[in-house]
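Morning!

This is the sequence you dropped in the shared folder:
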Amino acid sequence: MFKKLADKCIPDYEIESFDNITDNFLNTLKNKGIKAIFLDVDGTITTHYGIKITEEAKQFLIHAKNKGFTLAYITNCDSNRSEIVSQKFGEYVDDNIFWPGKYSNSIWTDWLLNIQNRKPFRQAYLNAAEKLGINIKHCAIIGDQYSTDILGAKRAGIRYTIKINNNLSSNEPKKKRFQRKFENEVYKNLLKYTDKRPENI
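The structure's back. Tokens below.
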């Protein structure tokens, strides 16, 4: 059981910054059939609840789009936050935004339905791929959390997962910092149950 979970949480690649993603790496993804790249928002392209995209992320999005990749955001933000993200960062992607859940202002029955469309549930990714008209096997993802971005993507069958450790978490709320610290400790323990390790780009 632990080995299976460990294999699902370990990314294929790990990077410290979007600057680590080279032109050669993007060419490799294209040659392996990757057509779309999904991106997390908070902690990946911006600070937690930030409204300004990092320069490194901006340059990556522009370059990846010019290389012919279809780009889209997948975030667990509530609807209000997602609207802000869409307005601020929508110009850099092909489809403005996917926000898998809006349960913060939904009635209970809606919450039960929407929670299944949030990361790490696979439906968040499957819905996004279907909306773009791209097979999930031809998608990659970049995100900052093992327990949502990476786990959910692997459960959905996304071919390449990229974990970014770009130190954008300094402005996170205390609760989020605790969650991240706990997640990292769980991840370290899961490594004991598998020989799989992420590659560095």
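Headline: The two ends are 29 Å apart (CA to CA).

More detail when I'm at my desk.
O.
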